[in-house]
Write a structure and sequence with these properties.
About 30% of the residues lie in helices and about 45% in strands. The chain contains three helices and seven strands; from the N terminus they run E-H-E-E-H-E-E-E-E-H. The strands form two sheets. The chain has a five-stranded antiparallel beta sheet with strand order 2-3-1-4-5, with helices on one face. Strands 6-7 form a two-stranded antiparallel ribbon. It starts with a strand and ends with a helix. About 15% of the residues are buried. The mean pLDDT is about 90.
């Protein structure tokens, strides 16, 4: 059964952006939305993880859990999803906390 997915891909190669736009709409730069099957979603995510060398990407899609969605991430980023008793929360890296203390 097809379901909606959202992919945010930052600093990824142009060929990956082209591949994503074959299946999804690029509604703003580096933000892709579409309705695809689980197989297509997993294949797209495999391509994203294989091509995200210095970039970063996040995939969100519906799931049967308390929040109603699941996140997958790849690449280096300052926000990391963590599991807290079944809820996904976002943790900020130490480097971003140090920058916040400067202000």
């Amino acid at each position: 059964m097809p379901s909606m997915i959202v992919i945010s891909a930052t600093a990824v190669p142009d060929h990956l952006r082209g591949a994503l736009t074959r299946w999804l709409l690029e509604v703003t730069p580096e933000l892709y939305i579409g309705t695809v099957s689980a197989r297509v979603r997993d294949e797209l995510w495999t391509s994203v993880t294989a091509c995200t060398a210095n970039g970063a990407a996040v995939l969100a899609y519906p799931a049967a859990n308390e929040q109603g969605f699941t996140l997958r991430t790849t690449g280096s980023r300052r926000r990391t999803p963590i599991d807290f008793d079944g809820l996904t929360l976002m943790a900020f890296g130490k480097k971003s906390q140090e920058m916040a203390n400067l202000f």
